[in-house]
Amino acid sequence: MAGRILVLNTGSSSIKYELVDMRTRERPARGLVERIGEEQGRLVHHAGDAPPYERREHFAGHDEGLAAVMEAFRTTGPELDPVAVGHRVVHGGDRFDRAVLVDDGVIAAIEELAPLAPLHNPVNLAGIRVAREAFPEVPQVAVFDTAFQLTLPPEAYTYAVPREWRERLGVRRFGFHGTSCAYVSRRAAAFLGRDLAELDLIVLHLGNGASATAISGGRSVDTSMGLTPLEGLVMGTRSGDVDPALPGYLARVAGLDAEHVENLLGHQGGLRALAGTLDMREVRARDDAEARLALAVYTRRIRKYVGAYYALLGRADAIVFAGGVGEHDAATRAESLTGLERLGIAVDPARNEAPSQEERAVSPPGAEVAVLVVPTDEEGEIARQALDLITRSAGDT
């Protein structure tokens, strides 16, 4: 059954895609369609060692964007003959604890869950619908960001809010970045030469979105994101933790309604609010009061969660950094763990600052708690889960 999986990550105005060869683990093609719906869209397609194939035109919708992707494959290759199409879906609520084959019932469920992720689920569905039309005979697989986090125990996912909210409205912590956590935790165990079932890990996925997850025996036991991806760490444009009374306060003193406050916290918060930019590289390049404060708030929040999760787990075998910032920003790694030496957590400056794109330890040799950098591969994990599912499904028929 092993073959090529087309992975689609559909955003509000973009389609990110990769063709993953599950026999060789190579990526014969990858690309991005961006600015869908805008006057001047852009497609960039990379196939092997060939020069990038590029188109600049108006893509009115995701159907036109995917049609351009298929034209790019026909023009520059490779042959687009996937055995399945894997889709990233942000929110599966408490209904989906694993990848599923897409049918009309699954589509209806993702639609019903859209209020929990209004910026993500509807566009994830757009990608699924377009792909079903483009590949009517090819299995479509939905892989949910929330699935890995559904192992949270009740004391971790339950908010102390009225029973009606919890039971009728489904208010609870869900957590996200599950696809990354699944991949990173498995790779961390392999790097350490240990069985994942015997490890306690704290995974820090630091990118434009950021989260901390406590993993014991391969299962998530706590995570910083909550009902939505807004809770937890400071992110590129998201505030992370704030006083829950903040929207009420702003309504009283500034006349701001809840939707407006939610939008500001999600799109104008985080590093953008503190330093005027969501790009950590730009913040690091500056030496002014705003940038210094932004970095202090950002790394202090991470350190706070690491300490909390160490206490919750009772120990830690490794702290694992992933995501764009986690993988590439040595200063953030060092600053986020400063002061935790008494817990056995430390960063070796030479190891930490050595440039590398590989999985590696950045803690001192023989450290009590390993500090690892594990580049995440969400597309590869989606492809793996998709192949596992269609292989099992074929065996059941």
What is the topological layout?
Elements: E1 4-10, E2 14-21, E3 29-34, E4 41-47, E5 53-57, H1 62-76, E6 84-89, E7 100-101, H2 104-112, H3 121-134, E8 140-144, H4 154-157, H5 163-167, H6 178-192, E9 200-206, E10 210-216, E11 219-223, H7 246-254, H8 258-267, H9 270-275, H10 280-285, H11 289-313, E12 318-322, H12 323-328, H13 330-337, H14 349-353, E13 360-361, E14 370-373, H15 378-396
Helix pairs in contact: 1-3, 6-15, 11-13
SSE series: EEEEEHEEHHEHHHEEEHHHHHEHHHEEH
How many helices does DSSP assign? 15
Q: Which class of secondary structure composition applies to the elements? A: alpha/beta
Shape, per Cα inertia axes: globular
Sequence stretches where pLDDT stays below 50 over 5 or more residues = none
**Helix coverage percent:** 25-40%
Widest sheet: strand ordering: 5-4-3-2-1-6-8-7
Q: Strand percentage, roughly?
A: 15-25%
Terminal Cα separation, in Å?
A: 14 Å
Largest sheet: 8 strands, mixed
Radius of gyration over all CA atoms, rounded = 21 Å
For the residues shown, what is the average pLDDT?
A: 95
Tell how many strands the DSSP assignment holds: 14
